[in-house]
Amino acid sequence: MKEIDNVEYFDINNISEMFHKKISAEEIRGYFEEGKIKGKIIENEWYTNQNAIDDFKNLLVDERAIFVGPYKIDLSNIELKGRILDIGGGGEGVIGQFKGEQVVAIDPNRSELEEAKSTKDLKIVMDAKDLQFLDNTFDTVTAFFTMMYIQIADHKKVFEEIYRVLKKDGEFVLWDLTIPNRGNIKKDIYGVRLNVKINDKIIESGYGILWNKEQDMDHHSDLAKDIGFKILKKEEEKDTFYLRFRKS
Does the pTM of the predicted model rise above 0.90? Predict the structure, then answer.
């Protein structure tokens, strides 16, 4: 990053970090060269300012993404007991905003945790496939639109780790997005827009991924049963679903 005439200019790697490396530096260089990001070359590298980056984000959504929603999710009356482990608790940090000091939020990306708007939860950089907690540690584990970001091949390992760190009779609570088959659709990003209600507060958020997988509620509930969870609740509404399991 460089500051010129009191304006901050970001290079290709800075911009890739802003997108949590979901768009590579090479892709971003291509967007500059095509004129889809307005910028300037400084010391043989592309740079641009925040306004141009915001314009590019809007263009990217129009060109590459399909978002469903917005859908309303009301957390106000959702019961989450005791010490809570929130899987993928970076970004918006919804569960951290909801339950504060009860929450230990983990995410493999430090930048996601640093950006989280929750302030009272404990944030730790950690991979859900290899939880660094003792067995039977947490009363509750949550995953709020997190499994969609984890490769399908890794779902079983994540569920096994969650089962291990939950106490007996502890609960795993999951919200996520149904991702259909992409078929011949050219757009390659799929996501959901949400309005999350926590008491009197509304959090406007969106979650999107590269459209290279499919998932649904049955995939998660079947996986949970195979590992040993008891299903307490299954709710599906339009493109989203809510599941609640108990460790027996």
Answer: no
Decide if 113 contacts 121 (C-beta within 8 A). Answer: no
pLDDT of residue 75: 97
Phi, psi for 45 (deg, rounded to 5): -135, 150
Structure tokens given for 101? 């000091």
In this predicted structure, the answer to whether residue 61 has a pLDDT above a threshold of 90 is: no
Note the pLDDT of residue 22.
74
Find the mean pLDDT for residues 191-205.
95
Report d(CA 139, CA 18) in Å as an integer: 34
Residues 12, 164: Cα–Cα separation, whole Å: 41
At position 37, the amino acid (one-letter code) is I
Closest-CA residue to 104 (of 114, 91, 88): 88
The stretches of the chain forming alpha helices (DSSP H) are 12-18, 25-33, 50-64, 94-99, 110-115, 152-165, 217-227
Q: Determine how β-strand 84-87 pairs with β-strand 103-107.
A: parallel
More confident residue, 60 or 180: 180
How far is CA 102 from each of CA 95, 97, 141, 204, rounded to the nearest angstrom? 10, 10, 11, 23
Dihedral sign, Cα of residue 186, residue 189, residue 193, residue 194: positive
Q: Which of 103, 137, 138 has the alpha carbon at shortest distance from 120?
A: 103
Tell me the three state secondary structure of residue 130.
helix
Extract the tokens encoding 193.
């827009």
Q: How far apart are CA 91 and CA 94, in angstroms?
A: 8
Which residue type sits at 118?
A: S
